[in-house]
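ok trying this again, last paste got cut off
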Amino acid sequence: MDFIARVFVDSGLKVWGTFLANWPYLAFSVVVTSFLRVFVDQKRIAAFLQRYRRGGVLTATAAAVGTPLCSCGTTALVLGMMASTMPWAPIVAFMVASPLTSPEELIYSAGLFGWPFALTFFGASILLGIGGGAAAEILETKGWLAQQARFIQSCCTGRKPAQAEQRKPRLLFDELLSTGGRLLVMFFGFAFVGYVLNGLIPAGWVQAIFGSGNRFSVPVAATLGLPLYLNSEGSLPLIRTFMDAGMTPGAALAFLITGAGTSIGAVAGALTIARWRVIGLVVGVLWVGAILFGMGYEMLF
């Protein structure tokens, strides 16, 4: 019991120390998220995508990484894109890149992992979106993506009429409280769980599986990210704690890339508008891309 108590106390102190080192990044990410969610309307984003359809994959990828959309929001936009008779290439590009990153997540990850890691993650999201779109374009010309569309009502169709009538400052204040509270709960909760696990699991085990001495650490992390990733608010601090225990940055990057795009919310949202061939393409692009970027990051840094 004394050992367990010491682990809990030590974990709490480490979480608090991590929070003190990262609170400016957390606060800034909350502000950026709230401003974008209040002042950037999903309908305007959909209109932008339709207006610049000729940009195809590049336009869809830019919209995906530049907006803070939930899985439901992503689904609503993709449905709008399909309604405008877009081909699969920009749709897949959006489905690959959108769950991976956003402006606030770039800031959040920079605080936890440093700017080189955060910028690599952000750049990987862009390149994987473009790569996924290119792969979809090739497969569509071969007929492999024929009859892969579903049309089910999205769970997120924009703000409620009552909310739309409220003034922007009130909406912004409510969004700041909601986003800030959710982020703090996720940060403290998952960081604490991670440090407790580090205290209970021998560091040698983490290093043996995800350390630099294991040539398969990146593929293993990429594969584990498929079923184990929860959400960015919780998974980012959790992976930070595993890095403190010996997980390499490349393995961490691989886990976050595959996990973000294949979380329960992302897959559930994708399944409302696409069938399994499209889902398989998205998952395959993320898994292969996670391994390549993870290994590349290991070699470069």
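PB: full thing came through this time. Residues 2-300 form one domain.
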